Amino acid sequence: MGRRSGAWQDMSSDYEKQLEAEIDAVLKTLPERAAPRTLLPRVMAAIASRAPLPWFRQGWQMWPAGLRVASLAILLALFGGLCLAGWELPKADAYASATREVGRWLSGVGALWNVVNVLSSTMLAVVKQLPTGFIAACLASLALGYALCMGLGAAWLRFAFARR
Amino acid sequence: MTEAQQFEMFVQNYQNMVFSTATRLLANQTEAEDIAQEVFLRAYERFAELRDSPTAGGWLKKVATNLSLNHLSRYRARWSFFSELRTGGGEEEEREVEFAAPANLEAELARADCRELVEQALQTLPAAQRVPLVLFHLEGLRYEEIAAKLKVSLGKIKTDIFRGRAALRRKLRSQLGEAALS
Known about the structure:
- Chain A is mainly alpha-helical.
- Chain A is built from six helices and no strands.
- By secondary structure, chain B is mainly α.
- Chain B folds into two domains: 3-73, RNA polymerase sigma factor, region 2, helix turn helix motif (Rna Polymerase Sigma Factor, Chain: A, Orthogonal Bundle); 77-181, Winged helix-like DNA-binding domain superfamily/Winged helix DNA-binding domain (Arc Repressor Mutant, subunit A), CATH 1.10.10.
- Chain B is 79% helix and 0% strand.
- Chain B has helices at 3-26, 29-45, 47-50, 56-73, 76-86, 94-97, 105-112, 115-124, 127-137, 143-150, 154-181.
- Chain B is globular, with a radius of gyration of 19 Å.
- In chain B, 32% of the residues are buried.
């Protein structure tokens, strides 16, 4: 029995070696496949579309050095001007009247803020009156809806981008 | 000659090799073309290094192989699963039944000028067999390297390659028979 098993293994090993050599010889003689004619134009078109953008459409780090220095100088001058204005303006006579004028303009905004404040405190009072179970159920349904949207979105993505 | 023209020549020199590598791994010409395009776009980014490098071909082949495998990896779980399923199936018996000494298949194919038959037979193999077979015989990788690349066990790689060889031989035999008859 042992001898038969050994002979079987030898035969199997011989067969495997022969098969490997045979398939190797067949595959190694395969010539290269011709690339489609569309490949080269596609590659060149993709490269052309990746051509660098003009400097003003790139990030600040990619701007030419001179322009970077100039833009930095302008920004510093603006910042300095603003600081100086902030320091000097309260001393000016016109400042008080200007402040009053601005306050008048913003009085409308103040009224709006009051309305929002009243509304939000009313909402808060209403919510405090609701039973805790109801609030928990609302929050749970919100979470469930969110999870459903996420799940459906993920399933759609998988389906849409699956290999056809 | 401008840089664009130089790169165009570079693509022309290597496009068949890159496309062949991707096609044989993916068994899909459209996807292989996409992969080849991506390979050359990456090459363009390193064209200054690759332009005169004697290893440019090897670099391109490696990138084409890796991108093709990455592309396949999305489906790897699926094809590994099917490959495992077949372990207990009918193909296991081919170890025991196909012991007849193979005639010289290469000579027969050369006589019949049937290289296209080989390509077709290779393309119809399941990915679980075709990919390791191509990596072993055409890319020259060792079993251990293939197992590491595909993240599967060495035993499974050996089995898949053996099955791939046997299946390829069987397909070629049947196609040669048909070709001889027609």
